[in-house]
Specification:
The protein has 155 residues and is α+β, with helices and mostly antiparallel strands. The chain has a single domain, classed as Nuclear Transport Factor 2, Chain: A (Roll). Helix content is 23%, strand content 37%. It is built from three helices and six strands. Strands 2-1-6-5-4-3 form a six-stranded mixed β-sheet, covered by helices on one side. A hairpin with a 5-residue loop joins β1 and β2. The longest helix has 19 residues. The mean pLDDT is 89.
Length: 155
């Protein structure tokens, strides 16, 4: 069976980038509810500690906790490394995140140079008029390096 490649426009890429811009603005403003609005109602999210949150409200509650304490006043930067479209309205997005200005980090997470670096994967889907993240997975990476990308072909 032949699978066709979805038709993707530059506008779609820009719309997805706007989703991440909204996430950054909300985080940097310390606004957990606004941040959570960038996620689907039934989102599944895994943070850097491996904790899993299901549903926008659960994510909003956790975000309120951390943006009001350990990450209060911090600055988030997101960089898109790769967008892979599953369909024209669903994409897997590989991001690199940097957080600075945090109060402290969770136990077991280090950032000796003051920059928390993570490799983030978000599954985004277009819902009515907006793109939202339906799944989110975040992994802390070593302060001295960056996440490696490797594409393998074959079986």
């Amino acid at each position: 069976m032949h699978q066709s490649t979805p038709t993707i426009s530059i506008r779609t890429d820009e719309a997805i980038q706007q989703l991440f811009d909204r996430q950054v603005r909300a985080w940097n403003a310390g606004d957990a509810d606004l941040y959570a609005q960038t996620f689907a109602e039934n989102v599944t999210a895994t943070n850097i500690l491996g904790d899993n949150y299901v549903g926008r409200q659960a994510l909003a509650s956790r975000m309120a906790e951390i943006l009001g304490s350990i990450f209060k006043g911090s600055t988030l930067e997101l960089g898109v490394r790769r967008i892979a479209f599953v369909r024209a309205d669903v994409a897997v997005v590989d991001l690199e995140a940097r957080v600075t200005g945090f109060q402290r980090l969770p136990p077991g997470v280090t950032a000796p140079d003051g920059v928390l670096r993570t490799a983030m994967l978000q599954l985004v889907a277009k819902e009515e008029d907006a793109w939202r993240a339906a799944a989110f997975h975040n992994v802390a990476i070593a302060a001295t390096g960056s996440a490696r990308t490797s594409e393998r072909t074959g079986r």
